């Protein structure tokens, strides 16, 4: 009887620790942002319409309160072929519940003509989650990244 009670207590503690770690995982990468601080959301290999390429997302915190410059790049890695992919950065403010998307169909033609979408966006103050997505599956999809905006 005593052994059973000890076992159930240990199992209960293990579940509590697991739950606490799981709850903390969503905010573990939250970083206090400073003006002109830059964050890479992800950089991952994906299959484009006619080639293989790499989707990249970046966030640059602007000095104006709650503003960010969001860039999405599509860089083809198949020689001699234009390559198109819909790559986006989705953002969601955890305090205000506002959200938006930057990106779209991006075509990589050469090293000098990369597929790029860029926008200055008012995302608001507080924690903002940024996620890099593409129409076709990313090889290892990056986890959403949270930045605490000034």
UniProtKB/TrEMBL annotation:
Signal peptide extent? 1-30
**In terms of domain of life, where is this protein from?**
Bacteria
Keywords (alphabetical) are: Signal
Name the chain's protein.
Secreted protein
> What lineage does the source organism belong to?
Bacteria, Bacillati, Actinomycetota, Actinomycetes, Mycobacteriales
